[in-house]
Design brief:
Layout: H1 2-26, H2 31-47, H3 54-72, H4 81-110, H5 118-129, H6 136-143
Length: about 140
């Protein structure tokens, strides 16, 4: 009976190893970079959660440019067809995100003509995220 269980375990192990190999063959050369990008992006979006803030925009611009540099360092000519497709689509996604950050910056730069209360709120939020003690009363006085 013990031999039967050992044999069954060996067959299951071989089958699962074969499946893992097949799954690994389905990924591209850009896959690891994409997975890291999604994880890093999630972390940054949780930390810089105030949209349209100058600090968030600058950090995201640096982040996207960093991944663009890492992507272009990969050997495109030696990639599989799937890898080349992932490369092109990921590059397009990064370029698009950088373009939207530029558009956001242009729109935000036009707002001070209409509204001037945003800067004290952004400054208070930046201090709060860093764990510094801040006075919201001073922030609210600037709004009035």
């Amino acid at each position: 009976m013990k031999i039967f269980y050992t044999l069954c375990f060996s067959v299951v192990t071989l089958l699962s190893f074969g499946q893992q190999t097949d799954l690994l063959l389905q990924t591209s050369e850009v896959h690891n970079l994409l997975v890291n990008f999604e994880a890093d992006l999630g972390s940054l979006e949780r930390f810089y959660f105030v949209n349209n803030s100058p600090e968030r925009r600058e950090r995201m611009r640096t982040f996207y440019n960093d991944y663009l540099t890492r992507l272009t360092a990969l050997p495109f000519d030696n990639m599989s067809v799937g890898g080349k497709a992932d490369f092109i689509l990921f590059r397009r996604e990064l370029d698009s995100r950088l373009y939207f950050l530029l558009q956001e910056e242009k729109e935000v730069n036009q707002l001070p003509k209409l509204i001037t209360q945003g800067e004290p709120i952004y400054a208070a939020e930046k201090k709060r995220r860093r764990g510094e003690v801040h006075e919201l009363a001073g922030c609210c006085e600037a709004i009035e």
